[in-house]
Design a protein that fits this description.
Layout (H helix, E strand, L loop, with lengths): L3 H14 L19 E9 L3 E5 H20 L5 H21 L4 H25 L2 H13 L6 H21 L6
Antiparallel strand pairs: 1-2
Helix pairs in contact: 1-4, 2-3, 2-4
């Protein structure tokens, strides 16, 4: 995803300005350099517009699917995990509003990118990762005692010395 960001940012300026895409149709989109309107609304929705773009909806749906697939693999807990989940599901909704008025080629590119990512993830999970074997290895590693590194031992020793010094100061210098 991080590798795709510069490409996506370049596409924001490329697709609307590309002369080759003007008046070029694809599937239901009549002009790839403009938005693909499948339904004209009689009113304007703030941050969305007055039309419905199918490529943008498909892009949002595939992003939500990919997000749910990614979240099923995450094992974080606590408040930060909840906030991260909210942000991950909020981004596609924001993109729906933002990309609805951009060129249909940009939404189509993002849609195809999501479909390829979903297919790759499914293929990797099915053909390359043995989840049962992976769970066994994780369970075995949990049972093993964790050996502290030398650095951790030094830090612990320094903390014990400081606690002892603080206790001696508060107790008048006498050891108990």
């Amino acid at each position: 995803a991080l590798l795709q960001m510069p490409i996506l940012l370049a596409m924001f300026s490329f697709f609307p300005a590309a002369i080759e895409l003007r008046q070029q149709g694809f599937l239901w989109a009549t002009d790839l350099s403009s938005y693909d309107s499948i339904l004209q609304l009689p009113f304007k929705i703030p941050f969305y517009g007055d039309h419905v773009s199918l490529f943008t909806i498909l892009m949002t749906v595939t992003t939500m699917i990919y997000t749910s697939m990614s979240n099923s693999q995450m094992s974080m807990g606590g408040m930060q995990a909840k906030q991260m989940k909210i942000m991950m599901y909020l981004m596609p909704v924001l993109f729906l509003g933002i990309l609805n008025n951009y060129s249909s080629a940009l939404s189509y590119y993002y849609f195809l990118s999501n479909v390829v990512s979903i297919l790759l993830t499914l293929a990797i999970r099915r053909f390359f990762i043995n989840e049962d074997k992976l769970r066994l290895v994780i369970e075995e590693n949990k049972k093993r005692p964790v050996k502290k590194s030398k650095w951790q031992q030094r830090v612990e020793n320094m903390q014990k010395v400081r606690q002892e010094q603080a206790r001696m100061r508060s107790g008048g210098g006498k050891k108990k």
